[in-house]
Design a protein that fits this description.
Layout (H helix, E strand, L loop, with lengths): L29 E6 L4 H17 L3 E6 L9 H7 L4 E5 L3
Parallel strand pairs: 1-2, 1-3
Length: 93
């Protein structure tokens, strides 16, 4: 008996995007949080907010919550991201 193993991978690779440049420092920067809206993100983001301000000198932390935890961020949130230096997305299960 002969067993044939098939590779299900697509033969063509998708075009690669480019990663954002790494920030040298967070001092004076604006960080945005995008929550999936579940309860678990609140405490985590609150703690992270304090750490970013107190230990890393972040100037502003903006909180946004998606309207549906399983859907992509809405257009208003996506538009806001352009004004942030850093975006952090969290899942609170």
């Amino acid at each position: 008996m002969v067993i044939q193993v098939l590779d299900p991978a697509n033969e063509t690779a998708p075009p690669l995007g480019r990663t954002a440049e790494r920030l040298v420092s967070l001092v004076g920067k604006t960080v945005g949080f995008i929550s999936n809206g579940k309860e678990g993100t609140k405490g985590f983001f609150a703690h992270l907010d304090r750490m970013l301000r107190d230990e890393f000198g972040v100037a502003d932390v903006i909180w946004r919550t998606k309207s549906n935890y399983s859907a992509p961020a809405g257009a208003a949130i996506v538009a806001d991201i352009a004004g942030w230096d850093v975006a952090i997305s969290g899942i609170g299960d």
